[in-house]
C-alpha cells in the first residue's frame, strides 16, 4: 500500500506533508525550496498551465488568466454574497455555470473551481512524489470546518480529477490541533480552541481532547475573513488615495491592481514585525496627462490597524457563538492554538487574548501546521500511527420537512460521525396510501432557508385511521459524510431507502469528461511544463480512479 | 561454485527456536552459522533443518562473508537460495500450529505471526485474515447489541463522567471506522461503524450523571427477571469498580497474553497448550512489535483489578481444593437462599462453591431460569479457567439463552469476542505490516 500524504489545500497557499521514518510529520519541500505553494493557477495564451509561484509571478502580466482564491468558489453558487464580493475584487472573470455554480472564465473558456483545485492538488502531489521518490495516489485533504457537504464533495471531486484518491476530508482546525500535539500534553480531558486565521478564511473550533480522542464540540467562523482582507483594506485605501491625487482609477488597470496587491501583502508581512515600511511601485500607471506615476508611500502598522479595526471586531462573534454552542465559558478553554499566517499579526494575537483571556500558543510556523496534522492523520489511517483518533462531526442539522414548512431535526449538527438516529412518525389521514419524506440540511428553523437533499417515498401503506400506521425513519451518516435514509412501515416491515451522496456541483459524468479532456490535451501537448514529467503516470492513474457515471447519486 | 559443498544438520528442538531462526535468518534470506574455522567465501552449504515435529527441510546457501558477531560469536553469513513456497508454508504452518496449539483445521488462520516477508502467499493470507476479522467483528457487534449501555462501555453503574469518557475514548480508538481504513475490505469499515454507533450511543446515554440515572431507571424495570429483581442496587457496588476497565486493558495488561488463541470462541481449540508452545507464541508476539503497538491500548488507562481476567489466568485455589465436597456443603446453606450471594462467590473466584449453590437452587425449583443460567455461567467460567474457550463460549451462550438478562454471561461473551476480534486484527495488521515492513 502506498503512502498517504496530507495536503492543506489553502485559499492563498497550500502545503503538503507526510510522516517521516520516525512517524513524525514533516513538510515536503518543493524542488525549488518552497515549503508552501501559492494556490494560484494561470493559463498562458497558448493554454499552458502553470501553478504556484510561477503562476503568481506572471500574474502581473496576465491578470485575467491567473486564478487565485478558487477555494472561495468551490462548491458555491455564483449568487452567494461572499462570492459576489470576491467577483468584484478578482481580476479574472467569475461566471455562472448552468446550474448556478460559480466558475471562472479564462480565455473564453469556462472552468470549474474543481479543475483549478485539481491543478493545485496535482502540483502538491508532484512535490510529494519528487520529495519522496515514489508514486503517491492517496491523500488526506483539509477544508475549513465551515465547509458544507457540497464544498467538501467538490474538493473530493477535485482530487479525483487530479488523480488523487482523497481518503478523508479533515477539518483544518482538527488537523491543527493534532499537529500541535494537544493530545499529548493533555492529562485527562482538556478543552482547546483552535483559532485559524489564514489567507482567506477564519475558523474557530472548540475541541475536547481526551485520551487521544479529538472531539469537535463546536465550530464557527467566517469563510469570508482572512489575511487577504487586510491586504484589500490597504489596497482600497491606496486606490482611493491615488484617485484623489491623480484622478486615476486603478481598479480599471488590472496590472496595477495585481502589483499593488502584492505590495500590500508584503507590507503587511513586514508590519507584523516592524512598525513601519514603505511601498514603492515605480511606473504604477499613467496619470491623466500620460505621465508615469511613481508611487511611494510610507505605511505604519498603526494605519493598517486603523483600517482593519472592524475586521478584528469580526473575530469575536464567531468565537462567542462557538463557545455558546459548546456550552462553555471562554475561561474554561485551557489552550488556544494559533493557526494561519495572519495570526502573526500582533493585533490579532491581542484580540485572541482579549476574547479568551489567555495568551495563545504559537507554533513555529502557523502556515504548515494544518498540513502536518493532515499527514499525522494520514498516518493513523494507514495504520502507521496509533496515536489518536479524530471524531468528525456533521457540519449541519439534518432533518425532514414536517407539515407545510416546518423543519424537524433528526441528526443535530456537530454530531460525531458515523451517526445514526431514528424517529417514529404516524400517518395523518385515514387510509393514507403513502408518505413522502423530504430530507433537508441546514441550520434554520425555516425550511425554505435549508437545502433539500432528497426525498423518500414509502407507498402501499396498510389502511387504518389517522395515526394508526407508523413509519420509522432511520438516518445514518457514515464517516465519509454519506447519508442514507430508510423509511419502514412497522406493521408490514415494508421499507424503502435512499443514499444521498453530497454533490459538489459536478456530476460524475462531467468529472470523467474533464479527465478525458485533459488526457486528450496532454496527448496533444505531449508534455506539460512543471507537472509534465509525470504525464504518463498521471493518465494511467486517472483511469484507475474514474468510475462509471453514477447519476443516481447526484 | 564448484568447491566442496558442506552439509550441515540443524535440529530445532523447540518451536521457539524455529521461530527465532525463522525470524532472524530465514525470513531475511540469510543465515548465520557458527564456525570456529570459517570455510571459504563462496562455499555452498546444504542445510537439513529438522523441525521439532521431525520433519526435515532442505535449505541451500552460499557463504558470503566471515563475521565475528559479539553476540553470536565467530561464524559465517550464508546467503540462502530462495526458499521454495512449500518450505515456507511448512515452516509457517508449523509455527502457526505450534503457536496456536490447535488442530490444523482452519487454513484461513494459518498465517504466521512472524515479521517476515512471504511475498507469494501474503495476498491470500490478507484476504483470508480480513474475512476472519469481518466474522469476528460481526459476532462482536451482535453481542454488543444485546448489552446495556453500561456494559457496552464496560463501566460500572455508579461511574463518573471521566471514566465514561475514558472508556469511550479507548473504545473509539479501537473501533472508529478510521481504525480500519488501512484494510482493503469496506465491509470491515461498515461493521466497525456499526459497532462505533453502538459505542457512541452508549456514550451519549451515559455522558452525565442525570442521563445515567435515567438509563439505570429503565434498566431497573427491564432487568426484572425472577431472582434478579433486586440486583439493581446490589449490582452496583461490588463489581462495578472491577468491571470498569477490563474490556480495554485486558488484551495487553494481562500478564500472559492469550496469544495462542488466534480464533474466536466459536472455533476455539480444545487441547491445552504445551508449555513450550506457549513460550514460543509469547516470543513471537514480542517479535512482531508493530502489531503490539497497534493493539496496545494507551498506557494511561488505569488498570483496575482485572475481574474476569483474573479468573482466566490466576490459578484457582478452589480448583485444587482436595476436598471440594466439603466446601460445597459449607457454602450451600449460606448461599442457597439467595442467588446474589452466589454472585459474590463468583466474584471471589469460588467457582465450585457457586456452581454447587446454583445446582441446589435448580433442584429446588427447576423453573428458576436465573439459577439454571447461573449453572451455565459458572461452567463457562470454569471452562475459561481451563482455557477451553469453545466450551466457555457455548456455556455463556446457553446461559444467555436461558436467561437473557444474565449480564455476566453477556459480558463474558462480549469480552471473549472482543479478544477474538483483537487477535484477528492483530494478525491482519501483522500481515499488512509484512507488506510494508521491509520498505
Please tag this protein with its features:
heterodimer; A: 554 residues; alpha+beta; 6-stranded mixed beta sheet; 5-stranded mixed beta sheet; 32% helix; 30% strand; B: 439 residues; 18 helices; 5 strands; 57% helix; disordered C terminus
Description:
Chain A has 554 residues and is α+β, with helices and mostly antiparallel strands. Chain A is built from 14 helices and 27 strands. The two termini of chain A are 30 Å apart. Chain B is elongated and about 85 Å long. Chain B is α+β, with helices and mostly antiparallel strands. At the A-B interface, α12 and β19 of A face α5, α6 and α18 of B.
Ranges of chain B where pLDDT stays below 50 over 5 or more residues in a row are 100-121, 222-336, 434-439
Question: What is the rounded distance between the termini of chain B?
Answer: 32 Å
Strand content of chain A: 25-35%
Please state how the strands of the largest beta sheet of chain B are arranged side by side.
1-3-4-5-2
Tell me the total number of β-strands of chain B.
Answer: 5
SS summary, helix count of chain A: 14
- Please summarize the sheet with the most strands of chain B: 5 strands, mixed
Could you outline the blueprint of secondary structure elements for this entry?
The complex is a heterodimer of chains A (554) and B (439).
Chain A: E1 4-8, E2 13-19, E3 25-27, E4 37-38, E5 40-43, E6 49-51, H1 53-57, E7 66-68, H2 81-89, E8 93-96, E9 102-106, E10 109-111, H3 113-132, E11 138-143, H4 149-161, E12 165-171, H5 172-180, H6 182-185, E13 190-197, E14 202-210, E15 213-222, H7 227-246, H8 254-271, E16 276-286, E17 292-300, H9 301-307, H10 309-326, E18 335-339, H11 346-356, H12 369-382, E19 389-391, E20 397-402, E21 406-411, E22 419-426, E23 435-442, E24 451-458, E25 470-477, E26 483-489, E27 495-500, H13 508-525, H14 535-545
Helix pairs in contact in A: 3-4, 5-12, 7-8, 10-11
Chain B: E1 6-11, H1 15-24, E2 30-34, E3 44-50, E4 56-69, E5 73-80, H2 85-100, H3 119-145, H4 149-153, H5 161-175, H6 186-206, H7 209-222, H8 231-243, H9 250-253, H10 275-287, H11 289-295, H12 307-313, H13 324-335, H14 339-348, H15 351-364, H16 369-385, H17 389-402, H18 407-436
Parallel strand pairs in B: 1-3
Antiparallel strand pairs in B: 2-5, 3-4, 4-5
Helix pairs in contact in B: 1-2, 1-10, 3-6, 3-18, 5-6, 11-18, 12-16, 13-15, 14-15, 15-16, 16-17, 17-18
